[in-house]
Design goal:
Number of domains: 1
Bound molecules: copper (II) ion
Helix content: 10-25%
Distance between the termini: 46 Å
Number of helices: 1
Number of strands: 9
Largest sheet: 5 strands, mixed
Mean pLDDT: 83
CATH superfamily: Cupredoxins -  blue copper proteins
Radius of gyration: 20 Å
Order of helices and strands: HEEEEEEEEE
InterPro entries: Cupredoxin (IPR008972)
CATH topology: Immunoglobulin-like
Structural class: alpha+beta
């Protein structure tokens, strides 16, 4: 009887492990960052105001291509200002710890690049 119970337990364990590795990543910051490609060119930015879903504690990586250097303003709490150079660079937005909508803006262009829906 005991042996059967033990076998059942390890079977459940295996199933749980398999399910875990599938899709649901924990929101503990150990998940991969969300990557967003951002292009600055001729005074405009792409994307513009696009909504992107992010989990609490998950980092966002902005892969920037720019024709001029500039600064990105992240309306998180506290706010973050991130500078980028002309050419290609990667900026990381971290510490998205509170649920809500966080605007990511270029004040140079006065445009909203993305809105992060942190949940
Ligand atoms: Cu701003």
């Amino acid at each position: 009887m005991r042996r059967i119970l033990a076998t059942t337990a390890s079977l459940i364990c295996l199933l749980a492990l398999a399910a875990c590795g599938d899709e649901d990543t924990p929101a503990s910051g150990s998940s991969d960052p969300v990557t967003i490609e951002v292009t600055f060119s001729d005074g405009t930015v792409t994307p513009q105001g696009e909504r992107v879903e992010v989990e609490t504690g998950q980092d966002v990586e902005l892969q920037i291509t720019a024709d001029e250097p500039g600064e990105i303003h992240v309306h998180s709490t506290p706010e973050q200002e991130l500078e980028y150079a002309a050419g290609e660079s990667t900026l990381t937005i971290a510490n998205l710890d509170a649920p809500g909508v966080v605007d990511v803006e270029s004040h140079t262009l006065d445009q909203v690049i993305v809105q992060l829906e942190v949940s």
